[in-house]
Design a protein that fits this description.
Largest sheet: 7 strands, mixed
CATH superfamily of the largest domain: CAP
Shape: globular
Number of helices: 5
Structural class: alpha+beta
Radius of gyration: 21 Å
Number of domains: 2
Strand content: 25-35%
Distance between the termini: 44 Å
Length: 425
């Protein structure tokens, strides 16, 4: 039976997109699809978009997805830190939800939160169904046309009228707010955020990472992307639902090309206050391991206006600082220290005074800040790579310390250490 939450009203809706570059796999050759993330804006798109390629006259999904939501249950057997690089044949994936990967992603979000003193988020099938239906909508688009648009919307697209909007069999509403209403997911003071990642790749040997591996890498990437990170560790959230779907990109070989889409919906209410005992939220925090080494792309961009192209010049794993019970904070005297090489890493700071998204819906409030490690000079990619900047060094312990002035009154010194995982190219 479908659970209907008591009450009505929607307090806050947040939506973010992260486009990931394809990761090279063992054997064969790999190439990245260009998702043109840098062309996305932080403002909602118009109802219609200019097409890249016209849609087919009679589009059909390669392998129609189920329209009825399943009822998966998370289990303790899912390992959120999968370390092997086992690959599977691309042709074995098809156009379908990868349920184990969906649950793994939700579990990773919950465990990452708990590792830094926040309340975990429980699997919620209503949220999973909202994520699943939108992911199905997106795979239908990407399987039937070469579409480049803001993936948080289900509006009719010019040139793709036969596969977009209400012509898409998985349509549930043009905006996230409309999709929430369609699902009947309402509660007093409801806060809900949607995070999306998408990746397309080619391998001449027809092999690709397992869906579980891709889900893990997607979540690591989301936790290295400032505007997504602050959404995922929102202290008000206590429920989450994720859908990971694979598909064959439009006009591509089902044996050599594949796409992954991850849609996550997380929710809570303004009454929830799952703060750490210290009253300060950071991510990473003391003892966190296996983080990303680099941020290669994010929309909206944390380096907008600087001239930096993250796709060629990434930054390292950012540090998120949030004092939820304070009106304002000021972060200063920052030290980002490589404990292996005994060197300091240069940093930039994003706060209310120099927020590149100031004046947009992603405007950073005065009680939040991000420390961005600038890694241009580290030569962190390793001898086997032609690249030089891959963010922070892999499998390395870093110590971060800073002064924190709270409400222009209380000065505190904070320090913690975290450890990166393998290099994410």
């Amino acid at each position: 039976m479908k659970k209907i939450l008591a009450g009505k009203g929607l307090s806050s809706v947040v939506f973010l997109s992260l486009f990931l570059a394809a990761c090279g796999g063992g054997g064969g050759s790999d190439s990245d699809s260009d998702s043109d993330a840098d062309k996305n804006t932080t403002t909602p798109p118009p109802v219609v978009e200019t097409p890249t390629d016209p849609a087919p006259t009679n589009p059909k999904p390669i392998d129609p997805l189920p329209t009825d939501p399943v009822d998966p249950k998370p289990t303790d057997s899912i390992d959120p830190v999968e370390t092997d690089y086992t690959q599977v044949t691309i042709s074995s994936l098809g156009n379908q939800e990868q349920l184990g990967a969906s649950l793994l992603a939700s579990n990773m979000i919950s465990l990452n939160r708990q590792s830094c003193g926040l309340g975990g988020v429980s699997h919620d099938e209503e949220l999973a169904a909202i994520s699943r239906k939108h992911a199905m909508y997106l795979q239908y688009l990407y399987s039937n046309g070469k579409v480049n648009y803001n993936p948080h919307y289900e509006h009719k697209l010019v040139g793709f009228e036969s596969i977009s909007g209400d012509a898409n069999p998985y349509f549930t509403g043009g905006t996230l707010t409309e999709r929430i209403k369609t699902a009947g997911y309402t509660a007093p003071g409801l806060i809900i955020a949607e995070n999306i990642t998408q990746k397309e790749s080619f391998n001449s040997n027809g092999m690709v990472n397992t869906p579980n591996r891709e889900a893990k890498d997607f979540i690591k990437a989301l936790f290295a992307a400032p505007y997504h990170l602050q959404s995922l560790v929102n202290p008000s959230f206590d429920k989450t639902g994720t859908s990971v779907i694979t598909y064959t990109p439009f006009g591509k070989s089902p044996a050599l090309n594949n796409g992954f889409i991850l849609v996550n919906s997380s929710s809570g209410t303004t009454a929830n206050t799952n703060y750490p005992k210290s009253g300060l939220i950071t991510y990473p925090c003391e003892g966190v391991i296996d983080t990303s080494t680099a941020l290669w792309t994010e929309s909206p961009s944390p380096v907008a206006g600087t001239g930096r192209n993250l796709r060629t010049d990434p930054i390292g794993q950012p540090i998120y600082i949030f004092a939820p019970e304070a009106d304002k904070i000021k972060v200063s005297n920052i030290k980002f220290y490589d404990t292996v090489r005994k060197t300091d890493v240069p940093i930039d700071l994003i706060d209310d005074e120099n927020d590149p998204q100031k004046g947009t819906v992603y405007d950073l409030p005065e009680n939040k800040a991000f420390i961005l490690p600038i890694t241009d000079s580290l030569n962190s990619c390793g001898v086997t790579s032609s690249k030089t900047n891959c963010g922070l060094y892999a499998n390395t312990k870093y110590t971060v310390s800073f002064d924190l002035l709270v409400n222009d009154k209380t000065l505190q010194r904070k320090s913690f250490s975290f450890t990166t995982g393998d290099t994410n190219y």
